Structures
1.
Amino acid sequence: MSITFDKVDYIYGKGTSFEKRALKDISFHIRDGEFVGIIGHTGSGKSTLIQHMNGLLKCTGGNVYYDCKDISNREYDRKTLRQNVGIVFQYPEHQLFEATVGKDVAFGPNNLNIPGLQADVRTYEALKSVGIDDSLLDVSPFDLSGGQKRRVAIAGVLAMKPKVLVLDEPAAGLDPVGRRDILDMIARIRREENITVILVSHSMEDVAEYVDRIMVMNDGALEMDGTVSEVFARRKELEEMGLSVPQISLLMGDLEDAGIIKDTGIYTMEEAVRVLSQKLLDRRGRNQ
Amino acid sequence: MVRFENVTFEYIRRDEEGNVDSITTALDELSLHIKKGEFIAVLGSNGSGKSTFARHINALLKPTEGKVVVAGYDTTDDDNILEIRQRAGMVFQNPDNQIVAETVEEDVAFGPENMGIPTDEMQKRVDEALKKVGLYKKKLESPNRLSGGQKQRVAIAGILAMKPDCIIFDEPTAMLDPGGRRMIVETAHELNKKDGITIILITHNMEETVGADRIIVMEKGRIALEGTPRQVFSKGEETLKKYGMEVPVITALAQKIGLDGCILTREEFVDAYVKALE
Ligand SMILES: Nc1ncnc2c1ncn2[C@@H]1O[C@H](COP(=O)(O)OP(=O)(O)O)[C@@H](O)[C@H]1O
Ligand SMILES: Nc1ncnc2c1ncn2[C@@H]1O[C@H](COP(=O)(O)OP(=O)(O)O)[C@@H](O)[C@H]1O
Ligand SMILES: [Mg+2]
Ligand SMILES: [Mg+2]
């Protein structure tokens, strides 16, 4: 499904003395199947933005469209919207509540009145795709490790078979190996299921490695929207917004300042290894 | 400053009748000595026992077996608890759970107030602490209006106002944006260098540990690896992976293109690369 925001505004506590304009005139279009990263300082509006994606919050100005259909339309089927757009909130494991892993994952499908057998199949499939073994189906989620709980929570959203998957810091608090596992898993699910994925993250490294396009939120406004290299080329502005660029970009910048390489716009490990090893090889060739 | 002697800690879960349901050994005969003024980074996979370790330092938990001594005070002796809590403060992961008062200033005063510090002395301490973390101008504001990084710095100021010898940070940057992260790690280093405060920083971010004097890697309640950042990160990717870790990005890149030595910082990288090109 493609998503279009057209001049979306959102004000918390409208008409009260606590009024807070959390989204300011946000417009963008996300094509079906894109992998988009959202970055922004705390309080920049990321969580508010993603809650507009499945109608949990209704914009106070502007419009949100899925496949060109306005979701604020009276005829728009909101229940299907919730099903199609799965949101994994921050620390989703805090919301596990059923007595067993199986019941927790099946909660969504059961709520949709999906017949028992089909719901079971979805539960199995979802758990399989997050790498949780069948043997854990009847275990209490509270007996699992932190990383496993997180996977079960994500499986609960996947069991709804969403066409758009939105994740708010899915790797927060995990150790580096767990972090990589979760992000690899999300990238794989995206490939296999052909779905649109939107990843909110505070890690510039993760965004650089996984997504194709970055949207930068700043004080409620969509400050930048472009390819990873376009966005990370604007280091000064990002730093002023409390953000950063990946370590690799910083290093390439240092090498450039030292007059060793030319402006490369490189931000991934792979590219850096390629360019820097090539230069070493060239030099050795000349020395021989 | 902090001494662990053969410390074992068990979480014991009981069913409704009070029978033991399960036992998790979170610390397993752990021994460790942290010197005054050291900056220690603690790494290790989720569930390896880092938080349990941290909570023993300010007597939130007490050893099942063995002994923890902080600034000369044994944590098992209840009479020592106030002394220990004043000397060893703890900053947690979630900035929102640590706010207790209506204004920044009151929040910072909460700890010393409970210690019975006289009012004028307290005001002095609060002001000093807020200046140190760069939030003096916000002292009359509501903490709820601050960013995550600022809230963490309010928590740090609250500890500073107690004039601690040691601050334990339990994944303080996990929920922060890059700017907030940078600020917290810089503050920790500054307190260590300028005020000689012993720092124990638990983190999953490898980049945050390269400035530490010593890294401790935990696994299953024990110390699996220990040494300077250079010693630990030169163990190589495969070893570190076993403990849920990675090498820092810059170190990994240097290793991949075959630069000699274990390179930790961007400056070291540029120097080594220039040499390699000569
Ligand atoms: N329920 C709420 N009521 C009032 N203000 C809110 C609420 N939730 C968020 N805000 C405010 O809206 C702004 C954007 O918040 P949020 O979307 O949570 O940002 P982010 O996810 O980028 O940290 C912030 O200023 C925040 O304080
Ligand atoms: N309150 C608790 N009750 C029972 N077990 C616990 C509790 N807290 C932690 N544990 C267990 O103790 C071990 C160590 O946990 P912890 O110290 O939190 O590790 P870390 O901080 O390294 O992630 C884990 O196996 C964890 O599941
Ligand atoms: Mg948020
Ligand atoms: Mg912990």
2.
Amino acid sequence: MNIIVTKEDLSKINFYLNKVVSASLAHSILLIDRSGQLITQYGNTLDIDVLSLSALTAANFGATAEIAKMLGEEEFTLLFHKGRSENVYFTAIGDHVILVTLFDDRTSLGLIRLRINQISGDLSNVLVSIFEGGRTVPLGEPERRS
Amino acid sequence: MPFINFSKDEIQCKIVYYGAGFCGKTTNLQYVFNQMNEESRGKMVSIDTRGDRTLFFDFLSLNLGKIRGFDIRVQLYTVPGQVHYDATRKLVLKGVDGVVFVADSLKVQRKKNIESLINLAKNLAEKGVSIRTIPLVIQYNKRDLGETDSELLPLEVLEKDLNSMLKVPSFPGSALKGTGVFETLREISKLVVKDVSRKIMLVDQQFK
Ligand SMILES: Nc1nc2c(ncn2[C@@H]2O[C@H](COP(=O)(O)OP(=O)(O)OP(=O)(O)O)[C@@H](O)[C@H]2O)c(=O)[nH]1
Ligand SMILES: [Mg+2]
């Protein structure tokens, strides 16, 4: 399977990410797939190593999901790390994607969650068309090695 | 799964270094990290037990330049090789596009290599991926310990143990000294990119 993101997809996604950022004062949002690949970033992430952050986030999320399963939970619904000035909030959007929101003391987790909830349905629809919309190409028989 | 971003003309692929505990996966990545220039590599991230055994993974992102107008970015991961870390190995394998199987040439590790390869096949199969079709390269590591040394398995024995069914490209090497490291990386990148570009040819008319 391969995942294809077009310019059109990205402008739709960025439209929703912009909504969250501008209405909540979060300083940046990353959209990451569950295997650790960065799909897009929005906002001010200039001085962060976003590729490493994506790999670590997906691993962290995956490990936490396994812990939840062991405890008989389907998945933990709130994942949040609070630092002295920087905070990070993780949200699963559908089955394939994690939204990582970075924010500081100018805003609050409550407001961030509210803004994400308002767009998560629409965003999820866009993502479903990327990940499940039959856009992965039929490859016929897998190539066999001689 | 390869991640094709038509908005940035970029392809991201995930390559995982697999193999028994202590076989030299982390050492492979460290060598690559030290040799590549800073413009084409990111930071190396290691989640390990006090700088030693891998606990979760090592991660290194590389830019391999352009192919057919696309920027090729590969993300190298290692798994923790120790048997009891199977759950974390499965997490690291998520979305894998190509595998380097690192085998330890030491005689005492013969059984461990075979078990690890079987474990790889099983964990891939759980994700619906066949070890017979995924891009795969084998590296016979620690050859610096001496071809004549009775402690080392001859290459023919390693080939027979690990590669008689798979028949994939294989390289003797020493991750510690750096021999064979880039040959291995180049070959797996080539196989993965070939696999991906076959897919692009099928889609770029459709989506560009
Ligand atoms: N002589 C020699 N030693 C090596 C070579 N490659 C790795 N080593 C040594 O083997 C030990 C284990 O290497 P690592 O790279 O940490 O092994 P690993 O496969 O990452 O092990 P896990 O993280 O436990 O799965 C270290 O002491 C390395 O220095 C090699 O090519 N030759
Ligand atoms: Mg290691």
